[in-house]
Write a structure and sequence with these properties.
The complex is a heterodimer of chains A (331) and B (245).
Chain A lengths: L2 H14 L1 H4 L3 H27 L6 H17 L4 H23 L5 H20 L1 H4 L5 E2 L14 H24 L1 H11 L1 H6 L4 H27 L1 E2 L6 H14 L5 H15 L8 H15 L4 H26 L9
Antiparallel strand pairs in A: 1-2
Chain B lengths: L3 E10 L2 E11 L4 E5 L6 H9 L6 E6 L2 E2 L5 H6 L2 E3 L12 H10 L16 H13 L15 H14 L4 E5 L7 H12 L6 E5 L3 H7 L2 E6 L2 E7 H6 L1 H8 L2
Parallel strand pairs in B: 3-8, 3-9, 6-7, 7-8
Antiparallel strand pairs in B: 1-2, 1-4, 4-5, 9-10
Helix pairs in contact in B: 3-4, 3-5, 4-5
The chains are: A mainly alpha (331), B alpha/beta (245).
Chain lengths: 331, 245
Amino acid sequence: MTATRIGLLAGAVVLLTVPLWVPGDYYVSVCSQILIYAIFALGVDVLIGYGGLVSLGHAGLFGIASYAVAYTLAAGVGHIAAVIVALVLALVGTALFAALSLRVTGIGFIMITLAIGELLWGLAYRWISVTNGDNGISVANRPAPFGISLNPPTHFYYATLVVFALSVFAAWVFIGSPLGASLKGTRDQPRRMNALGYHVWLVRFCACMFSGLLTAIAGILFIYYTQFISPQTLTLTASAEPVLMVISGGSGTLLGPIVGAALVEIVKNIASAYITRWNMLLGAIFVAIVIFMPEGLVPGSRRLVRALLKARAKAPAVAAAAEPNSGEPTP
Amino acid sequence: MTALAIHQLAKSFGGLHVTRGVDLEVAPGERRLIIGPNGAGKTTLFNLITGEIKPDAGSVALFGQELTRLPSRRRAHMGLSRTYQIITLFPKDTLLRNVTLSLLGLSHLRWNPLLRLDRQRSLIAQAEAALARVGLGHLAHRPLAETSYGERRRVEIAMALAQNPRVLLLDEPFAGLSVDERRDVKTLLFAIPRDVTIVMIEHDMDVALDFAERITVMHFGEIVVEGTRAEVVADPRTKEIYLGE
């Protein structure tokens, strides 16, 4: 069994047994939140890590999905229809988002996505007839698929875990696919990819759509988790958070955004109970990561393990070389 | 029918005319060498042919098909392939992945988000064959970043040839190579079948003159001399450009 498979198995066992070993419902809910943000960060990582496109407007897409569910449920529509409407609206929103922002790359892309994110936040804040402004919209109930209510935190956690597992699998398939390889090519050498026959803009557009899909899924889970949505969910800080998760965990990896999401959510929800200035702690952690593991926690840890293994393998050889008489009989 | 027909091609960057009224016709299967001092507009001409730069005036046709308004990617699908003066590859990937990307560029498979690329046996076998053709089959799984400059040049050529081009543009394929590497690349270029038309920019006359059947000399964005090797070498304008009056 390879190290990757052992890791996957261990990860699956840990995630499946969370309600058994975490102390209480609050912490089970925090784990649900970690999984939701991990899906969000995975969506952002598709663009940052694999497409070289840093988005500061993804909270807008996240918010579209959340608001769509809340609004349609408030209008008396069922959960399934609400989820479908949310996915369709979020994907239409993503298509417009991509069509506008993919006109440029680099700093230009960041600025346009930031502007779109702020525009959507402004809409959520000022379009009171739809969004209820600063008061937000509440969702009375969580759905009950197959007759199982998702109101208990443990049930909701397992439902989130299933969606999370499917999202990670979808991301794994996408990244390893020919389209995923094309996306990585456009990140590294867009000019070369164009000359090789690739439609660079369309490849990036497809990546945006997949990223938007993951973001929408996270947004739908989020509204069912909090059962409340307000413009606060669409702020610039909310867009920056998944970017920080991706950078701290390691962009261009599937595990990195998950680790980054766990780090940020644990500090935000657990460490904040003990430390008043938890923002400062989070900042210090980011600074430490940038200094000691600039590639992120996951690739940085891999590098560290490789170096340790290499040093361990060299140690006996060095020791043998230091003993000139080794192997010879002593008088 | 000509393989590559360029008519009155012109391009300026502000007040600088990098290509002025260039007319060029390359016959099918021909080996054409383009020479000229630095700044003569040779690479710009390649960029205009491949569509990476839009011309101000003039036209480009490939086997009678007008290309001038087509984007660069469409020209690759029509059989136009190139290598770059400054090696432009994917350093994080293996040699095999580099060539696979080249093959994928012309395949409908490139839009597929559901299949695993590493399980596309046919595509990978073609990529391995392309690498073997340039003598790099044994290094297929090595990351590009761990290869020598000469090997990277050969990867560029493998990528171009993998696309089965009708016209191949080689921009200084011998630049920066050692004597042994030059010999290897030269052997490789001589082995390319005649159904591929080759236009090459090169400064190394010892190698390039052997290879080319016709030579075009460019200077200040214009074609100054064109003809066989003997005609170009004998032309006083060639000496004037390279040695001064």
